[in-house]
Amino acid sequence: MKKSIFILCTLSCLCLGVHAQTLSKTIVGTVKLRNAGAILQNGLVKGYYNFYNLEKQDRKNNNYLLSVTDENLREINSVNIVRPNTYLLIDASFNGEAFGFLFYDMREKALELIGYDGTLKQGNKITKKLKNKYANASYAYIAQGNEPMQSFLISVPNKGFIYYGINEESKSDYEVEFYDNTMKKVWSSFAPADAFDFETAGEAFQNEQYVGSTIVKRTSVLSTDIDIDLLVQNITDGTTLFRIPMESSKYKIMLAEVFFNKDKQQFTLFGEYFNKDENIIKSKSLGFIAVVVDMKGNIVSEKVNTWSEDINKIVAAKDKEKFEDTNILFHDFVKTNDGQVFAIGEQYRKGGNPVTGMKIVVNNLVVFQFDADYSVRKLHVFEKDQNNFTLPKGMMLFNSKMMSYVAKSMGAFDFQFSQRSSDKSTFTVNYINYDRNKGEKGKNVLGTVIYTPEKVFAIDKLPLNRKSTDYFVYPAKEGYVLVSEYFQKEKRVESRLEKLNY
Amino acid sequence: MSLAWNTAISQFDKTFIPAPVLDTIPAHTLAAIKSKLSVDKSRVTGPSKTINNYIKEVYDNRAGLVIDQFNDDYFIIDDELTPYLQAVLDKIYSANPSLPRETNVYAYRSEVPNAMSYGEGTIAFTLGLLTRMETEAQIAFVLCHELAHYHAGHSDSKAAELARINLDPKLKKRVRKIKRNAYGQYTKLSELVGSLGLSITRHSRDKEFEADSIALRMYLNTSYSLEAPVRTLEILDSADMSPYRHNIDFKKHFAFKAHPFRDSWIDYTRSDRWYSSETNDSLQTHPSCTKRITAIRRQMAGVPSANRKPVNLGSEQCSKLRHRSEFEIATSLFQFKAYGRSLFLFLMLADRYPQNSYIHAMIGQGLYQLYRYQKNHELGKVLALPDPRFEENYDRYLSFIHSLRLTELASLSYYYVSTKKEFHKEQEDFLYACWLTSTTAIGNEDPAKIKAEYAMRFPSGKYLTKMKVQ
């Protein structure tokens, strides 16, 4: 469930400017805490964390409770933490042996990285003062109740954690740090001094040998003209295996996924592709590309699937009309254990007008199925009711693609998350839609598209009855989804695991 | 003993008829409880009207709880279990004529080995405890302990203590002080409540020792053997251990020609995850059995053993009740919609009674209910999630059920029943299971035909209404 680094870039130009004006407000105003979430290990849910504000300790500090449950919602342990009342939980991770938590103090403008062992006994604590205004702005954006646009703390199986941050000594260049299981720093690496003042790093992949990071480069904070590199480093000491631009011989690549073939010692870069002179954030792609590189970053092979021919061929006649005048925003890419790749997206159209407000009209979920040799094989369309989302005024200047990124960050799209099984033979895609069946009362529905072990798709729908003030849906252990309902009057949260039907 | 065992279990070889479910408290029982409540309230004559009213409210709630539990069918009113317990109670009263006959005992639908005195005269003896009792004397000692609680007025004392705590002006002042301060409210209130909890539980543990002591005096007035008190406490000490130790052979039960077994269903790795303990020993209401046994032995030192009934008095009857209780527990869980746990216990029973039609019927019905709840995305209401702190056989079972897809649950329920129909279809519960599982549309059994067959065989059948509604 990697966040899209492209959304991060698109929004950065909006948010950083905004936050430079609103940073002081957020300190004295209401802080919305991200107080619950799934703890992931290799993309699988291994538990949940809850971070509660129990009480005011004194004028400046609160007494918080950090509670961790297993994947069956049974509490493993909980610990009291006394911290400033401007404290915020940003990220939580589990690597099979240890937990890592990332906190941000808005008043002190400082990060805290804390490691806990499997029993929630605290290990090391690292405090980092953040002087960089862009770093502080990105955390302040989260403090305003927005979803983080990237994961900052990533687990490396049984070895430690990768932290993505901003180099204090730079304008806004990345730093990548690796911490061991006790949260002791092992190595750090920084963006090179070059023409790009804004280089952001985000997770691409990690395993016990290597860590891959997507590097997005811009010359200024408001620039939408970006270049992308893939950086692959050794996990043990951070030495660079290679850093290559996301380009093939002819095209520019918007990297979506990196797959590592241990046997062949090769990386496959998969994503949409563009002509080299095009802007990948604004322009429509030409189709999908798979580029295989060796351990030095040299291209071994590449394969394209064009929209105009390869993909158009597989669109069923009955679905052709659905693809007219629509775009697709891709949310995730999944590779199953038989080598097939699935690109998961949602159709949308630009609508509305500058007077009444620009809209994004979201409709069907689509899944493109690729063979193990990355040839597109099939297109699956999952119909769902249309969802109209009105964007804040001022968005008329963006093209539809950029608008879709902004809209996604505001929760316009129905897609919630996708999950793979532990053996990678199946996966699920979850979305929330307002279902209006004929003759029935409309209701919110959690829809799940399931790629079954029989290699066909099934759909399960779970009505979400709105008796509660609000509800949240989280990924869960294989075959399940977690629904949490918040009852404001009773100050109660009810969580339950729901098994998927297929 | 072997003959007793064989005799005891042979009655359940073919089928089982569970105790009736009444849904409503019998009128005479309700009248008796209300009358007793009136008497209890009239005895509350302390100097403070506020405290008296509080205590009376506690008595109202106490009686209300008992009435609710009757209406919810926790208390069993039948012709074997409860009358047997009542007969033992009568023997204790006969041996202790100074005690006023103010209590009644009922078998209670719970798997947990326990007995409870509600304080208003009702004593519950759980099915879970009945499954552990070896002799009539052990049952008698347990009843003596509960009688001791009642006749020593422990429940009434607790009500008075609760009143004192809740209406204590000093306590209220402390709470107001905590609330006035904006800082540390949760911690201070937790400490305050914790100290109250400690106080209440300390009294409870003292009362357990007192109840043991009084119970022993009552017990020694009977002619039951001297071995039972200590042996009963030893049994209670091991109450946490499940009586079912072996793993279920899932392949034996669920491999069908038309629906082959999948080994992936029984993939299981016991988690070694650590969990923090939730038990603070200081908050336990009962002292350890070891300490209780020491106290009992000290009190019994020098008591002559002459003229006592044999140690194994009533062991045959107890054996029968034990086995009967196992069936009743599994059935009760089904009635209370704990379908997951019920199915587990019936599968355990199936190994011991492979020809019993009732067991196979309830397995089929249990599987169907799990399917039905899963279809509605409500499986969590009737089936627990795996937990390494459970007994391994139960954890394995939960892991197995949770690994089944919806269509697989439906198939297992259908084929389990349809492959046994030839042998068990004359049993009413089984034929109903056939009808239920045929509605999953898995096989080619026609629900309408089965319904007609049921109506013909059982014209006054207990499932007719359900079949019309569903």
Molecular structure report:
The complex is a heterodimer of chains A (502) and B (470). By secondary structure, chain A is mainly beta. Chain A has a domain at 255-308. Chain A contains four helices and 32 strands. Chain A has helices spanning 5-28, 133-143, 307-314, 400-409; strands at residues 36-41, 44-56, 61-70, 75-84, 87-94, 98-105, 110-117, 122-129, 153-156, 160-166, 172-180, 185-190, 198-206, 210-218, 227-234, 240-245, 251-261, 266-275, 287-293, 299-306, 327-335, 341-353, 357-370, 376-382, 387-390, 415-420, 427-435, 443-451, 457-464, 470-475, 480-487, 492-499. The longest helix of chain A is centred in the N-terminal third of the chain and has 24 residues, at 5-28. Chain B folds into two domains: 2-245 and 279-300, no CATH class; 337-469. The two termini of chain B are 47 Å apart. Chain B has a four-stranded mixed sheet with strand order 1-2-4-3. Chain B is built from 21 helices and four strands. Helix content of chain B is 60%, strand content 3%. Chain B is mainly alpha-helical. The model of chain B is unreliable at 1-5 (pLDDT under 50). At the A-B interface, strand 2, strand 4 and strand 32 of A face helix 9 of B.
